[in-house]
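Smr/MutS family protein structure dump, as promised
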Amino acid sequence: MSKVVRSLADLKPLAREMAAARLAAEVERERVAAAMRLADQERRVFELSVGPVTPLRATDRVIHDREQPAPEPRQREADERAVLLQALSDDIDVDTLLDTDETLSFRREGISVEVVRKLRRGHWALQAQLDLHGLRRDGAREALGLFIHDSARRGLRCVRVVHGKGHGSPGREPVLKGRVRRWLVQKNEVLAFVQARASDGGAGALMVLLSGTA
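structure tokens r here:
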């Protein structure tokens, strides 16, 4: 009988261990379940915030690829500006290239005097204008080179360049007037130029005829 009692006493620690193991397993299951509920709430935070939603009705739609913007040749444009700036010299002797009339007009070889007369009378419609007021020498030179280049590339025929009469310059001398003439005769796109009529700017502007016009 004593042996039976000892055996039952030995089972009590084992029972306690089994009960503790079951409790630990239950606690772990509850912890895992709580973590899963929290993760689900985090995934559905928008749905839980706005409440029930109704899916949009499906429609037949075509999704087009977004058109990519054209690449900008910035380096080429910078190179062109540099070439235009360097190509126009201030040292060229322009006096021998100008006609000795009252306005010192210019016509390239092969361009008749009649073309110059037509230009002076406004035979060709003015299509674009560049105003150099307020620009320093290098800025004006670059702006003029780009303007003539772009105008010719666009197929323009007659343009006006406003260089000013020099009223605001030291000594009231037209600083850009002579330089603009020097620069224009160096541009192959320029066939001729004359001083503008009084209504178009007079002594403060030039009417310029570009290649392809005559």
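The helical segments are 2-43, 45-50, 74-87, 113-121, 137-153, 175-185.
lmk if u need the other ones
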